[in-house]
Amino acid sequence: MAVARVTKITASSTKSFQDAVEQGLKRTAKTVRGISGLEIASQKAKVEKGRITEYRVTLEVTFILE
Fold first, then answer.
1. % of the chain residues with pLDDT over 90
2. What does DSSP say about strands 4-13 and 51-64: parallel, antiparallel, or unpaired?
3. With the C-alpha atoms ordered 18, 19, 20, 21, is the resulting torsion angle positive or negative?
């Protein structure tokens, strides 16, 4: 029987929401083993002078406990 844990991660990118997700997962994988999935809990953007300057995501990353 496997036991999993879910943790929230917030990441950002100046390129896109997709890049923010990929950067968040890449950074999380450096310190968390056994990642089995993720859910995008929210997407937000920072706006300055009518333009998006930063894309932000909150991820719920699931990993299997050893």
1. 95
2. antiparallel
3. positive
Radius of gyration of the chain (CA): 14
Phi and psi based region of residue 54 (left: phi greater than 0; alpha: psi -120 to 50; beta: remaining) = beta
Helix and strand numbers (H, E) in the chain are: 1, 3
pLDDT tens profile 10-36: 999 999 999 999 999 999 999 999 999
Strand order in the sheet with 35-48: 4-13, 51-64, 35-48
The residue behind tokens 């083993």 is: 33
User: Taking the complete model, does pTM exceed 0.85, yes or no?
Assistant: yes
